[in-house]
Write a structure and sequence with these properties.
Structural class of chain A: mainly alpha
Distance between the termini of chain A: 44 Å
CATH topology of chain B: ABC transporter involved in vitamin B12 uptake, BtuC
Shape of chain A: globular
Number of helices of chain A: 11
Distance between the termini of chain B: 23 Å
Helix content of chain A: over 70%
Strand content of chain A: under 5%
Strand order of the largest sheet of chain A: 1-2
Radius of gyration of chain A: 19 Å
Largest interface: A-B, 50 and 50 residues
Number of helices of chain B: 16
Largest sheet of chain A: 2 strands, antiparallel
Helix content of chain B: over 70%
Shape of chain B: globular
CATH architecture of chain B: Orthogonal Bundle
Oligomer: heterodimer
Order of helices and strands of chain B: HHHHHHHEEHHHHHHHHH
Number of strands of chain B: 2
Chain lengths: 305, 360
């Protein structure tokens, strides 16, 4: 692998990582507040992708000019974000909330159950084969000779970067954001102290919304979707969240970028079939030395293992 | 399990030992009583029995020692693949079935402890994620190391146990191949042994140490229990039992098959079966696996074959078959169970008591 192709892989990895990070935030927010690995999150994102596929395939035959097409994509992205957020809230209300005081593994097993149901919905919707993601704007056009960035990459960035910016503003400037950060930084007790239910609803909605945005970005980025892509992407995003320190939003961003970089570089160097092993081995190695993840809170002595 | 033996006959009749013994006796006569057992049904029941062994191993980790493990299927894969590598005729090793099983168990146990070592410091949920990704790494390795593992096609043919051994005019290897009841009885015998062994371990000092560490690791450590050693032994036992299941499964199928079977979805399915039956409960694990995998392996194909007979044209594929709703049905069952009976169908008395004490 020469230097320019390494550089190219890094760019791909950064974009990929930005998308993964958005999904990872969904895992980390829910874990930071409820203490639950929301295993169905990847499948929520997959359903967002199905919705985007449906909406954009209606737009595609119109052959809109770039500005209008871009607006259509933004509208679909916001719609997907809203639907995924609502779905996430519905899952919380219907499934997780009745189990708050239950046996320790009950919510996790229910999350698996939800994941299976959503996957089944996706399978009935998409069929069991890969579906091509509609190209509303011409995607595979190089911006300039020698530059590894295509228009599709720019499009993905135009979705991911505002989402990151919005999230940062939300976390820094609003009351909800401050309480989210305090919860992630201190403990779950903070969530239980004040306005817990509204707060948790907002958390689930925010996680789902970012997931919905990511679903459109991921669809454009990978150009295909199938009913298992939620599980695959979800696994990478969960890895990113744990790697960065689950519960920490900056950790999720850094973890996402790291996972994206490792994935694209190992894909180029070793072939795509080894990418998963490289990413997961990196997680195991990092956790062996830093069990709380890169940005996670140090565990206090005496806390139950 | 620890009820005082007062000699009361009714209490003994209601005990787990009795009902388990009864079930095993029924299973032992089933092939003789059910016509056509040697056909497809025998093989299906055998694979459920084999999954029971792996699930009991997972129950040791999650139920007894309280360590959430999401990669148990990887150990089934490692066990089965080791057996295949050591016995397949195309490989130069060909060390025979029993030695290969022994080596395979040693390998799975060592890998289990290797996974256990660095992850002992992790909190519950991080541990779950690490075991998950470990399972995925193993799956990728088994799939990609084609020179050794045969890649997606798997490795085969694996010779049956006792190939070439003739006792009293019966060729053992041939019998295993011809008649599925031989593997059925082998799996049943191994399962019965494992159940008896685990009942013993549950009552032993090690079993009590597991529950002490599960409830409060710090308190257990102050009592002089080596938390590390106790947890590692759970890893080792779980891995070894999954390895046994892998050996049996590969031997009965005659091939390792596609290694992708040993991935996350199989691990999660086994975990769900254990929790469905009742975490920490040996009879519960058996019930959970029978319901979940019995549904998957036997009920759905039957139901779809039946539907197909009713409506040969329209109902063969698409959303009108039960198979296409399989995932959702399992998902709904899991959610409903967790909502209304989180302790499982046949809960361990201790865990059920704890749950109701805290949350009533």
């Amino acid at each position: 692998m020469n230097l320019s192709s390494f550089f190219q892989q890094c760019v791909i990895g950064l974009i990929d990582g930005g998308v993964l990070g958005l999904i990872a935030v969904g895992y980390t927010l829910v874990y930071g507040t409820v203490g639950l690995i929301h295993l169905a999150h990847g499948d929520v994102v997959m359903l967002g992708g199905c919705l985007a596929l449906f909406a954009l395939s209606l737009v595609e035959p119109l052959a809109l000019d770039p500005a209008l097409g871009w607006l259509a994509i933004i509208a679909v992205t916001l719609g997907c974000g809203f639907c995924c957020g609502s779905l996430n809230v519905a899952i919380d209300w219907l499934i997780y909330r009745p189990l708050r005081q239950s046996a320790p593994l009950a919510p996790l097993v229910s999350a698996v159950g939800v994941s299976l149901i959503l996957m089944n919905v996706g399978m009935l919707w998409l069929g069991s084969t890969d579906q091509a993601f509609p190209e509303v704007l011409p995607g595979n056009v190089k911006l300039a000779a020698g530059l590894p960035v295509t228009t599709a990459d720019l499009l993905v960035l135009s979705l991911v970067l505002p989402a990151w910016g919005g999230l940062t503003l939300l976390l820094r400037r609003t009351r909800l954001g401050r309480s989210l950060r305090s919860v992630a930084a201190v403990s779950r007790a903070a969530a239980q102290r004040g306005g817990a239910d509204q707060f948790l609803t907002a958390t689930f909605f925010l996680g789902g919304f970012l997931g919905g945005v990511a679903s459109v970005a991921a669809g454009i980025h990978t150009a295909t979707i199938n009913y298992q892509s939620g599980y695959q992407t979800g696994l990478y995003a969960l890895t990113a969240a744990v790697l960065g320190g689950i519960g920490s939003v900056p950790g999720a961003i850094v973890g996402g970028v790291l996972v994206g970089l490792i994935r694209s570089v190992s894909t180029a160097a070793l072939g795509p079939r080894w990418a998963a092993a490289a990413v997961f081995l990196m997680l195991i190695v990092i956790l062996a030395f830093r069990p709380e993840g890169l940005f996670g809170q140090q565990r206090r002595a005496g806390e139950a293992g | 399990m620890t009820t005082a033996r007062t000699g009361s006959a009714t209490r003994w009749l209601r005990s787990a030992t009795f009902s388990e013994g009864l079930v095993f006796c029924l299973l032992a006569v089933a092939p003789l009583a059910i016509p056509g057992f040697a056909g497809g049904l025998g093989g299906q029941v055998t694979s459920v029995l084999i999954l029971c062994i792996a699930a009991l191993g997972l129950n040791v980790m999650v139920g007894f020692a309280g360590l959430l493990h999401l990669g148990i299927a990887a150990f089934i894969g490692i066990g089965g693949m080791t057996l295949a590598i050591l016995t397949v005729p195309t490989n130069p090793l060909e060390i025979g079935f029993l030695p290969a099983v022994v080596v395979s168990l040693v390998v799975t146990t060592c890998v289990g402890m290797l996974l256990g070592g660095p992850t002992l410091r992790l909190r519950g949920d991080s541990l779950a994620v690490v075991t998950l990704v470990f399972g995925e790494v193993v799956r990728v390795l088994l799939r990609n190391l084609e020179e050794i593992t045969g890649g997606m096609q798997g490795l085969g043919p694996v010779p049956p146990p006792g190939a070439g051994v003739v006792i009293a005019g019966i060729d053992l290897g041939r019998s295993f191949v011809i008649d599925s009841r031989w593997f059925y009885y082998l799996a049943l015998a191994v399962l019965a042994t494992v159940v008896a062994l685990l009942h013993g371990v549950e009552r032993s000092p090690l079993g009590r140490a597991w529950s002490a560490v599960r409830e409060d690791a710090l308190a257990a450590a102050t009592l002089g229990i080596s938390v590390t050693r106790v947890r590692l032994s759970a890893y080792a036992l779980a891995a070894a039992l999954a390895g046994v299941a892998g050996c049996l499964s590969v031997a009965s199928l005659g091939t390792t098959g596609d290694p992708n079977v040993f991935g996350f979805s199989r691990s999660v399915a086994i975990l769900c079966a254990v929790i469905l039956g009742g975490l920490g409960s040996i009879p519960g694990t058996l019930v959970g696996v029978t319901i979940l995998f019995g549904f998957d392996i036997m009920v759905i194909p039957w139901a779809d074959a039946w539907l197909q007979q009713m409506q040969p044209q329209a109902w063969t594929t698409g959303p009108l078959t039960l198979g296409s709703w399989r995932l959702a049905l399992v998902g709904i069952a899991l959610i409903v169970m967790m909502r209304f009976r989180p302790e499982g169908l046949v809960p361990s008395r201790r865990l059920a008591a704890e749950l109701h004490e805290v949350h009533r």
